[in-house]
Amino acid sequence: MNVACPHNGENDQLYDFCLFTVLLTEGSVMIKDLFPFVCIEIILSFSRIRYRKKMIRVCRNENRKCHKSMDTTNQLETTRERERERERESESEREREITFVSVCLYFTDMISMPSLLSKRSKIYLCNVQNIRHIAMSGNTIWVSDYHLLQQVDEKGKVIREMKDILPGIRNSGIHSVTLSGDLIYIENEWRFIIERKHCVKNLKTDGSRVTLYSTDMELECLYSSHINGDILIVVTEVFNSFHLRIAEIAKVIRCDSTGKKIQEIEFKHQDQTERLYGDPRYITENQTNGDILVSDLGKDALVVLDKSGRHRFDYRGGFSAAEKFRPRAVCTDARGRILLLHRKNGTYRNNENCISLLDQDGNFISRLLEYGIDNCDFSALCVDDENNMYFGLKNVIHVYKLSDSP
User: What's the CA gap between 259 and 210, in Å, rounded?
Assistant: First the structure.
C-alpha cells in the first residue's frame, strides 16, 4: 500500500498518537487482532471532532461578515463563498480521514501480520560480513558468506570453517545438507590459470570430501532432496558484457545421491520454444508434493515445476507495474507452505525486503516480515523440521517460530 504519510503541522499530534499506539501494541498478540479496528475508530473520532470545531469557526466568521455587510449583492457573494468554503473544507476533511486511516492500516499491516511469528533468538556470527545462504543440519547451521563456509551451533560458536572455496560474490544457494547430515556445496577447481572446473562436492561427517558432479558450465545453486536423496543442481551458460549477465542456457539437472545424472529440465513446453529460466539463484523442493521451486532474478518470478518437471506456475508477487518484484531465497515448511524472501522496489519506499507466505499452489497467505533497510539486501532463509524460521541479515541470524495456522 502506497501511503503518503502526513507530516504537516496540524496533523503531527494525531500522527504521533497513531505511531505511539502502534508501538505500545507491538508486544501483544491479542491486542494486535483488535488493533486495526480500534485504531481506525480513534482516527475517525478525532477527525469528526476536528471537523466540527472547524465548521463552528467557519460559521462564526461568516456571521461576522454578514453583520458587517448590508448590501444584497455582497450578501449573495458571501453566501456563494460560504458554500464554496464548506465544500472545500468537507473535501479536505475527507482526504485527511482517508490519509489517516491509510497510515493506520499501513502500520497495522506491518505489526498484525507477524502474529504468525514469535521471535525466539538471535545468533551472532564471527568472520561473516553478509550471510547469503543458510542450511540446517540437526542442531547446527551451515552458513555461506562471499568466500566462506561456516558451521555453527545454536549460540553461534564455530564448529567448522572452510575458506576461499566458493564461486564468488553472487547471492545464491550454493550449499545444502543431505538426509544423512552431510554437506554438499559448489566449489571451483582451477586446472590452469585461465581454466576452471565447477564441481559439486560432498563433505562427509568424518571430514573427507568427494566430488559428485563436475562441468565446464556455471553452477548457480543446488538442493539435496529430503524425499529421496536426489540432488537438484541449477546449471547455466552465461554471456557477460558491460556488467550485464545474460543466461544463454539455464536448466535444472537432477542427479542421484552419487552424482549420476537422471534428468534435465530446461524448457517450459515439449516443443522447446520457451525457456523456463533467465537468471536462477535459489532452488528448493517441496517435501509434501515434490514440487521444484526456483527463484529467478532474470524473470523476476518464482518458477514452480511438479516433480516430473512440468511447469505449474510462476509467482510474480502481485505488485503494481511501478514496483519490481525481486525474488531471493525460497524454502518450504512441514505443511508444504512456501516461504519466499524477496525485495520490492517501488515509489513509496525505495527498498523493502519482505518475507511472504504462500500456499503450495502459489496463493498469497500473509506477509510475515517486512524490513525497509536501504543498501542492505538479505538473501538467506531457512525453515527447520520444527517450523523454526531462520533468516540472515548481515552477520546475524534471526530465529522465529512459525505458527501452524492458517
Answer: 10
Q: Kindly report the three-state secondary structure assignment for every residue of 49-116.
A: HHHHHHHHHHHHHHHHHHHHCCCHHHHHHHHHHHHHHHHHHHHHHHHHHHHHHHHHHHHHHHHHHHHH
Burial of 344 per CB tally in 10 Å (0-12, 13-18, 19+): buried
Write out the three cell numbers for 66. Answer: 454578514
| 3-state per-residue secondary structure call for 195-251 | CEEEEEEEECCCCCEEEEEEECCEEEEEEECCCCCCEEEEEEEEEEECCEEEEEEEE
- Identify whether the C-beta of residue 337 lies closer than 8 Å to the C-beta of residue 312: no
- Map grid coordinates 498478540 to a residue: 29
Given a contact cutoff of 8 angstroms between Cβ atoms, the answer to whether 104 and 46 are in contact is no
* CA torsion angle 186 191 192 195 (round to 10): -50
Dmax (CA) for the chain in angstroms is: 103
Residue type, 385: D
Sheet bearing 338-345, strands edge to edge? 324-332, 338-345, 352-358, 364-371
Q: Where do the domains of the chain lie?
A: 9-115, 125-402
Cell digits for 359? 500456499
Amino acid at 126: C
Note the CATH number of domain 125-402. 2.120.10.30
Taking only the tens place, the pLDDT of each residue in 128-156 is 888 889 999 888 999 988 778 899 998 89
Is-contact 158 151, C-beta < 8 A?
Answer: yes
pLDDT at 21: 46
How confident is the model over 316-351, as pLDDT tens digits? Answer: 887 666 667 888 899 999 899 999 998 876 444 456
Give the cell for residue 191: 586446472
